[in-house]
C-alpha cells in the first residue's frame, strides 16, 4: 500500500476524512509513491481556526525568540539537506543536484528570517511639534495563506511561511497536490525545531480548497506562485475578499547575446538556463535573442544543447529529469509540433526515450531558430526543455521585442560593453535583470521582483518587501508633559499639532 500523505493541523499530523484522493506518481516511472487526501471544508476551517487561535499568543512572543526558532530551523534544514534533496528528487523527478539546489535556496530565506529583528524596526522622530514625538511600530497581520506549485516544493514554501511566522503571523500552507512529500518533511523539521502548535498548518487539495482559503473571513493575506491563469483567479478572488495578495505567475524570459560577449560563457549559460530542470522554472531562459553577428553561434549552441540528455534523479550524467505529469508532457509535445510548422527546428526532443524507463514523461532538448513574436511557441510559456532563438540586428530592436512581451519576470544580457549593459538594465521593462548572469534570481536580502504580467500585487516575496507584506505599520503620536500644566489653554479646533 502506498504512503498516505497527512494533513497537519493544530500541531498534529492527521489523515484527511475526504473521499477525494489523488495518487502521487513518479514522473520518471509512473510508480505510485503515495496518495494524498484532499481536505474537507471542515478540515480547512479547522486549520484556519487553529492558526487564528495560535496567533493570539504567537504575536506576543518576543521577536528574539521568534528569530531563535528560525535559527534552529535552518540548522535542521542544513543537517537534513541531502535527505530533503532525495525526497524532492523522487517527488518531482529533478536530478539530485538540482533538487539540492532547490532546498538550499529555501534555506537562504530561512536564514534571512532569523534576522527578523532588524528587518522589523520601526521609525522614530523626536519633537515633531512642541513636545510631541512620533514613532511607528511594525505589527503582524494574523493568519496568512501560502499556495505553492509543483516545481519548487522546498524553496517556495520556504519563501513564505518562515518570513510570515518570524514576523509574528501564523500560517496555512496549501502545497501542490502533485508533490506533497517534500512539504511534509519541511513541516516535520519545523516542529522538531520547537515551533508551537497552530502557528503552521498544512492542508491539501485543489481549486475548492484554495477558494475556501481565499474567501475565508479569518485569513488576512495570500501568497501564490503558479500559472498565470490560476494566479489571475487567486488575485481577483482574494482581493475582492479584502485580502492582501502577492501572485507570482507566468513568464517568458529572454537572454540577449551581444556580438562582443564571451562565446563560451554564453553557450554554456544558455544550455543550463534553457533545459535545466526540464525548463520547468518560472525564471528559465526560453528565448535567446542573438544580436548581429552573434547569430553565427546558433549552430554551435545546438550542438551543445543536444548533449544535455534527460535521466533519472540518481543518474549522475543526466542534465535534467522528466516533466511533472502526463498532461504537461502532452502539452509540451503539442507546442513543439506547432513550432515545427512555424520556425526552423534545429533539435526535436519529441521522441525522447530513457533506457529502462519507457513510461517517463521525457522530452529531449529542443531548439528552434528564426522565431518571431507572432509564433505560438513565442507567445506561449512552454514550460519544457525548449529554447527559441531570435535573430535581430540591434540592441534597440531586442529591447522593443522584450518590452512588448506581456511578461516581465526575468531577463539577462551577455556583453563585454558596460555601456550596452547600462542601457539594457535601465530601459528593459522587466523586474529582474542579469548582466552576464543567465538566471538572475536575487539572494533573499533583496526581494524577488517580477513585473507586469508575471506578478499581481505590490509587495514581492522575501527580502524587505516580504516583511512589509506580512505586517502592518502602526504610527503613534505622543505628548508627555513633565512640568507644564494644561490649565488656561483653549481647545485646538484644527488638525495642526501644538
Automatic annotation (TrEMBL):
Annotated EC: 1.2.1.27
Domain Aldehyde dehydrogenase: 15-476
Listed CDD domains: ALDH_F6_MMSDH
MF GO annotations: methylmalonate-semialdehyde dehydrogenase (acylating, NAD) activity
Pfam families (UniProt xref): Aldedh
Coiled coil: none
GO biological process: L-valine catabolic process; thymine catabolic process
Alphabetized InterPro entries for the sequence: Ald_DH/histidinol_DH (IPR016161), Ald_DH_C (IPR016163), Ald_DH_CS_CYS (IPR016160), Ald_DH_N (IPR016162), Aldehyde_DH_dom (IPR015590), MeMal-semiAld_DH (IPR010061)
Alphabetical keyword list: NAD, Oxidoreductase
Signal sequence, start to end: none
PANTHER family per UniProt: MALONATE-SEMIALDEHYDE DEHYDROGENASE (PTHR43866), METHYLMALONATE-SEMIALDEHYDE DEHYDROGENASE [ACYLATING], MITOCHONDRIAL (PTHR43866:SF3)
Family: Belongs to the aldehyde dehydrogenase family.
Protein's name according to its UniProt entry: methylmalonate-semialdehyde dehydrogenase (CoA acylating)
Higher taxonomy: Bacteria, Pseudomonadati, Pseudomonadota, Gammaproteobacteria, Cellvibrionales
